[in-house]
């Protein structure tokens, strides 16, 4: 299955940034949050996503490479976040169609402190695990 078809199948078909080797896509559950951001914050996030796709190192103000881990059985997903002032977009990195994809699964639009909101982070972890399970099913079917 192609990367685009796999992304549509897992409801993450909207591409925010891409290069030949990497891509950032947003899942339907988080699209409305991203679309509702003011243009300046949206532009800052898109710039950070472009840099991530290009393999550039991002500052701690732009990206947190280790928000938390989500585990279930054999699945182990590292939840990460793109950041801009008082806003975080959570997701995880997956291989889709042989390409590295950061899939945005959730957002915290009103972060009040340095640490992540535990409820939103927990929800992001659940969503990231669900994506990992769906992608594993797709890969298994494609292998048959």
Order of helices and strands: HEEHHEEEEH
Biggest beta sheet summary: 6 strands, mixed
Strand content: 25-35%
In total, the number of domains comes to 1
Architecture overview:
Helix content is 39%, strand content 35%. By secondary structure, it is an alpha+beta fold. The protein has one domain. It has a six-stranded mixed beta sheet. A hairpin with a 2-residue loop joins strand 5 and strand 6. The model has no long low-confidence stretch (mean pLDDT 88).
In short:
This protein has 144 residues and is an alpha+beta fold. The protein is 39% helix and 35% strand.
List keywords for this structure.
39% helix; alpha+beta; 6-stranded mixed β-sheet; globular; 144 residues; single chain; 6 strands
Please render the helix and strand layout as text:
Elements: H1 3-9, E1 14-18, E2 22-26, H2 28-35, H3 39-53, E3 63-72, E4 75-84, E5 87-96, E6 99-108, H4 118-143
Parallel strand pairs: 2-6
Antiparallel strand pairs: 1-2, 3-4, 4-5, 5-6
């Amino acid at each position: 299955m192609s990367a685009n078809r796999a992304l549509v199948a897992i409801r993450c078909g909207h591409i925010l940034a891409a290069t030949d080797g990497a891509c950032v896509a947003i899942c339907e559950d988080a699209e409305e949050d991203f679309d509702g951001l003011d243009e300046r914050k949206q532009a800052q996030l898109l710039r950070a996503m472009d840099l991530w796709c290009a393999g550039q190192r991002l500052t701690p103000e732009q990206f947190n490479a280790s928000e938390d881990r989500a585990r279930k059985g054999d699945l182990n997903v590292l939840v990460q976040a793109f950041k801009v002032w008082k806003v975080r977009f959570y997701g995880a990195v997956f291989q889709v169609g042989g390409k590295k994809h950061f899939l945005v699964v959730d957002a915290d639009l009103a972060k009040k402190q340095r640490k992540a909101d535990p409820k939103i982070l927990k929800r992001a972890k659940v969503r990231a695990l669900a994506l990992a399970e769906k992608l594993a099913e797709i890969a298994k079917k494609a292998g048959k």
